[in-house]
Design a protein that fits this description.
Layout lengths: L1 H37 L21 H6 L3 H32 L7 H13 L4 H10 L17 H12 L3 H9 L4 H12 L1 H16 L3 H6 L8 H9 L13 H5 L2 H23 L3 H5 L7
């Protein structure tokens, strides 16, 4: 009886694997189409034709877009926001979470309650815009960094993770003469490296994909992020202003290949980082969970 049941389970498992494999393969086709269009030689490109593989390979679209001031400015802006924003996110989130784990900290209950309330209530777009305006951050990179130094979900998860660290380790450090800063730097931070790696990736992806806030806070086209520039290229179908007006290269490179190349270039950094931090995903998902 058990043999028949195991066979049914095996058949069911293989059916699930096959279905999930087909879904995974089908999800690759849009990505392959984008890459194929971007790598198609401008002279061989035919509009509205489906390309699974380019008829003739060329990096002309990438060479063109990487030479345009608009794309380079957007890349510089997004890189600055991602690097600086991620560093500040990690610093603020982990230091504040550590303070919230200490019951003797004055005002701990008030600050913890204020953090939890933001999980259920949000001020909205207009109050946030007024806040950024009154802080004098409009049309500045800091408008995309300063208002989002941390968030309630990250604080609560990191706080729960730190509370799972054995307090005896902190007590032994204090006996050896460490103050609270020493305990945090020498004990908590080294033990929190899996959490730091996971949240570094989460914050970096969040900043790299910044779109809506950049759209409403940044009006200077020279400070646009990559996502806003790509929206201009793809959604509004306007690639004419990405390079120098009237350049001969722009006349020879189709706008569609320029759009697809810009999408690929925007995805590459995240695709490059994910494999190196993938081993931390499982730990990141289970951070703060109850362990038996």
């Amino acid at each position: 009886m058990s043999v028949v049941y195991n066979k049914k389970m095996a058949v069911g498992d293989w059916a699930n694997y096959a279905l999930l494999g087909l879904i995974a393969i089908s999800s690759l086709f849009p990505f392959l189409y984008i890459v194929s269009i971007s790598l198609t030689d401008p002279e061989a490109y035919v509009p509205l034709k489906f390309y699974l593989l380019p008829d003739k390979w060329s990096f002309a679209s990438y060479a063109y877009i990487l030479s345009t001031p608009s794309f380079l400015n957007a890349l510089k802006s997004t890189t600055f926001i991602t690097v600086v924003g991620t560093v500040l996110n990690i610093l603020i989130t982990f230091t504040m979470a550590y303070g919230l784990t200490k019951k003797w900290v004055p005002g701990r209950s008030f600050f913890l309650g204020a953090v939890i309330i933001t999980l259920f209530f949000n001020a909205g777009v207009i109050p946030n815009y007024i806040l950024v305006k009154e802080m004098g951050l409009l049309n500045s990179y800091w408008s995309l960094i300063w208002p989002s130094l941390t968030n309630a979900f990250s604080l609560i998860v990191v706080k729960s993770f730190m509370e799972s660290i054995h307090p005896e380790l902190e007590d032994s450090a204090r006996i050896d003469g460490c103050n609270e800063i020493g305990v945090f730097v020498k004990i908590i931070i080294p033990l929190s490296m899996p959490a730091i790696a996971a949240f570094t990736l989460f914050f970096a992806v969040q900043h790299w994909n910044t779109y809506f806030n950049a759209l409403i806070y940044i009006s200077d086209t020279k400070k646009w992020t990559l996502q806003v520039l790509i929206k201009q290229l793809v959604i509004e179908a306007d690639a004419s202003g990405i390079g120098q007006a009237g350049s001969s290269d722009e006349a020879t490179v189709p706008q569609e290949t320029i759009r697809m190349a810009s999408i690929v270039l925007a995805m590459l950094p995240i695709l490059f980082v994910y494999p190196f931090l993938q081993k931390h995903f499982a730990k990141g998902v289970t951070l703060g969970s109850v362990k038996g």
